[in-house]
Each structure stands twice: as structure tokens, then as C-alpha cells.
Amino acid sequence: MTRWVSRFSGAQRGIAAVEAALLIPLMAFTIVGFIELYQYHRAAAVLDRTAFTLANGLSIQRDLYDRSDCSRTTNVCTYHAIATDLMQPLHYDRHGQVIFSVYAATEPTKNNRVEWESNPEWRRAYRGGKLSSSIPLAASRAQLRDFPPPNRGDTILVVEMFYDHEPFVMSAAFWDMLGGERRLYSRVFFRPRFSDIRELGL
Fold first, then answer.
1. Nearest 5°: CA angle at 65, between 44 and 92?
2. Domain range for residue 111?
3. Number of domains into which the chain is organized
4. DSSP string, the chain
5. 102 CB contacts (<8 Å, ≥6 apart)?
6. Sheet holding 155-164, edge to edge
7. Global pTM value
8. How confident is the model at residue 152, as a pLDDT?
9. pLDDT at res. 8
10. Do the Cβ atoms of 105 and 112 come closer than 8 Å?
11. Does the CA dihedral 53-74-124-118 come out positive or negative?
């Protein structure tokens, strides 16, 4: 009887070891997966908030200038400079990019239809900090079909932000298998509040 009990308890320990060997990696992967999803959606939310804040700040300026002094609110580069602070705790200086564009509406045609010009009045694109020099500059994804309907003499400001999300090393391969896009994108449209800002001063 004692021998049978010892055999049974040994078999139980073997079964428990097999169950642990199967469940522990699965539980670890599940935990990492939830953390990964949280990091991804947090980055997307921060990117959306930053794009909105930058567009709102640009839209209230009566005049905008293309100058290297990035401390004045009337200079476009200022909004790229403050993106680093707005994107905290993310590393915009290493992984972020932004594109500012202004589009104007066409004059009414014979059928009195007003449309957006296919080319922007001006566009400025910026990378993050010095450490991002190896990152290729992203191309604009703005499509006219996504713009709100224009009125005669209308202008619109488009702020496009990009952020290259870095998944955990242990889940990066799985992320690629799922076809997940690591480059996050956010776009915001704003109509200027006080002037059409079609021209960028020097």
C-alpha cells in the first residue's frame, strides 16, 4: 500500500510539472501581450493629443514665419520643438516626425463647386532630434477626399504626426507576423481662426 501511494504521488508531481511547463510560457506571453497592447494604444493616444494641440496652436496665429528661431509662437519650427514635451513619456526626439501643410480652396467653377487645391500652399516637415537622422523622412498621407468640404476663399491647416513604435524585443517577431504597423500616424484638420495663413513669411 505504501509503495502504491508513493508511486501515485510521484505521478502527480510529474503531471504538475508538465502542466507548469505548458502554462507558464502561455501566461508569460499573455501578460507581455497585454502590456504591449497597452503601450501601443497609449502611444497612439499621446500622438493624437499632440497633433491636436499643435494644430490648435498654429491655427490661432495671425501670421506664420519660416525662421530658425524656434522660441516664438509665430515661427513654424516652434511647434516641432515643443512636440518633444507634448509627447512625453514617449521619445519623440528619437522616433517622431511631423508635417505641417496649408491648403487653399479653388475659386468656384461653372457649376459653382468649390474644391481644395491639389497642392498645398506651403508645407514644412521635421524629424525629431539629432538622434533620428537615420530615420527617413515620412511622406505626407493627406488625401483630398478626407478633407472637410471647403467654402469659397477657405484655407485649412493639416498637421500629420508619425511615431515609430518599438515593441518589446521578445514580442517584436510576433508583432511582425501579425502584420502590425509600427509607424503610428495621426492627422488633424484645423481652419485658421483669424487669417488664412496662405503665405509663410521669411
1. 25
2. 2-201
3. 1
4. -HHHHHHHHHHHHHHHHHHHHHHHHHHHHHHHHHHHHHHHHHHHHHHHHHHHHHHHHHHT-S-EE--S-TTSTTBHHHHHHHHHHHTTTS-HHHHEEEEEEEEEBPPP-TT----B-SS-SEEEEEE-SGGGTTSPPPPP---GGGSPPP-TT-EEEEEEEEEE----HHHHHHHHHTT---EEEEEEEE--SSS---SEE-
5. 120, 121, 122, 123, 155, 156, 157, 158, 197, 198, 200
6. 122-127, 96-104, 155-164, 183-190
7. 0.78
8. 85
9. 45
10. no
11. positive
* Gap between the Cα atoms of 65 and 56, Å rounded: 17
Amino acid occupying residue 130 = K
Place of cell 530658425: 68
Convert the pLDDT of each residue in 174-185 to its tens digit: 555 555 557 899
**Can you name the residues that pair with 188 across neighbouring β-strands?**
159
**Set of cell numbers at residue 22:** 505548458
